[in-house]
Structure formats: structure tokens, C-alpha cells
């Protein structure tokens, strides 16, 4: 759907319309490398952007022949080798868990674009180390889904709380507000995150 149609729909909300006036944002395009996206998502958990980027770059240097390692290659490496790039023991096990799910065909990344949002989330969260929030970010930024809103995202709840005068822990009210933006909640999320930069 054209971005202009999404903007027109979101502008029906006067509060969000004011945010839209201040920023220019484009909807994310579907990714061409879903495995790399999931690897990076796991590596980045609970880290600053800078620290995550450093560790992920070091991780990729373990596989000099390819831009993105194949799952089989990850499984061949010892935990010690993987941890040498700065990964925690826990994240090392998560990366191997993801690789095992793909090698065993329990998770078929090429099929995810065919599935509903909730089915994608269910499929991804069976992998150790991937929770609902990570799966929701994957829907927005990797699959380019248009109607995803993450109640587990503290930034989104903080933005809605500030703009709409609700308690950021009141997930029922925040979910109800987000329904105003459906079926373009993903783009609304981008504007809400952007609004936090100047708060």
C-alpha cells in the first residue's frame, strides 16, 4: 500500500497528525536476509547500539568467506570460538539454537512471509532466545508488515503515555489507542519512536 494512503489514515488521529508534521519517515522494506537479521537481533539484545554493532562485526569476521554465515557453519564452531568475539555464554547458545532450528527445518525462514503475524511470532518464539518483542521487531523491520504494534516496547508505551496522557503500564488503554491507527500501526510506531528523540 502506498505510504501516502497510510499517512492519510494516520492523520485522522489529530495527536499523531502533529507528530507527522514534524518528521518524514518511510515504511521499512522487506529484508533480503532474514537469517542475518535474526542473528543480529539476538546479538543486540540488552546492548547499546554501538556495543552490539562492534560484537556483531567481530562475529561476522569468524566467517570471512561469506557476508552472512550459513547455519551449518555456526554449528561447526565451538562455544569458545563464538564467545571470543564478545558473545555471552547465553547468546552463544541462542545463536546455536537458531541455527539448529533452521538446519532441522523446524523453522523455514523462506516461508515466513506467507504466514500471519501471530503465526510468525509463534514460529520465532519457539527458538530459544527469541521473545515476542524481538519477533515483533522482525515483523516490522524484516518482513515489512504494516500493522504491528509492540506493547512490550517500553519506548512505544512511553511515547503513547506522554502524547495521550495515559499510564504507560496501562496496556489495555494503549492497545485501544493503537487500534485507531490500524491497519498501519507499524508506521505509527516509527513516528512514535521518532517523537522520543526530542523529548
UniProtKB/TrEMBL annotation:
Top-rank taxon, per record: Bacteria
Q: Which SMART domains match?
A: ENDO3c (SM00478)
Q: What chemistry does it catalyse, as a reaction equation? A: Hydrolysis of alkylated DNA, releasing 3-methyladenine, 3-methylguanine, 7-methylguanine and 7-methyladenine
| GO MF term set | alkylated DNA binding; DNA-3-methyladenine glycosylase activity; DNA-7-methylguanine glycosylase activity
Domain HhH-GPD, by residue range, is: 43-197
Supply one GO CC term from the record: protein-DNA complex
EC number, as in UniProt? 3.2.2.21
* Biological process, per Gene Ontology: base-excision repair, AP site formation; DNA alkylation repair
Q: Which InterPro entries match?
A: Alkylbase_DNA_Glycosylase/TA, DNA_glycosylase, HhH-GPD_domain
- What keywords would UniProt list here? DNA damage, DNA repair
State the top-level EC class.
Answer: hydrolase
DNA repair found in the keyword field: yes
Which family is this sequence assigned to? Belongs to the alkylbase DNA glycosidase AlkA family.
Please report the name of this protein according to its UniProt entry: DNA-3-methyladenine glycosylase II
